[in-house]
Amino acid sequence: MNYIGVDLHKDSISIVAVNEKGSISLKERIPTKCIGKIEEFFNKDIGSCVVAYEAIGFYHWFYDLISDKVEKFILANPIEIKKYS
Question: What is the pTM of this model?
Fold first, then answer.
């Protein structure tokens, strides 16, 4: 199982994938206007994966874009995440 952390910003999206051994396997920052590049990232052969991202006001477009490409989504509370950063 691979794990992907996503940080959504107004102008860009930061994506970091960690493999089963805990090593970073992919890391990318993509402008949010480049929907095709975001889809391309999630179309890569990343295997079975869980995606975690913050529950912010504009996350729905991202969920709709890749929901059929990943096994599971974890919607994280931004206040709780801050405790671990």
Answer: 0.81
